[in-house]
Design goal:
The chain has 2 helices and 2 strands. It is mainly α. Helix 1 runs antiparallel to helix 2. The longest helix has 19 residues. The two termini are about 20 Å apart.
Amino acid sequence: MMDPEDLPISGALRERLATWADGYSACIDHLPDGSPVPFDETAYAAEGLAIAQAIKAELPGWTVIYFDISKLDDSQEDQPRGEFEYEVTPP
């Protein structure tokens, strides 16, 4: 994975990416062990995919892979990776 500061993307998209990532970190970093995650995982994943699509639009020659937390099934130890991690194509 590349450091977002090194991505040749617009400042607005870089800020959107940072805000999205900070939202998850702020939520997870302040929870007691075993606490449920108090945010809308589906909305978070949708925004992440939208950001990944925007990155792909700005960098059409790049391969952009998205890890979709909303499609990850923690109860499946052997869940195929392609079910929750996939290449982003232009919308």
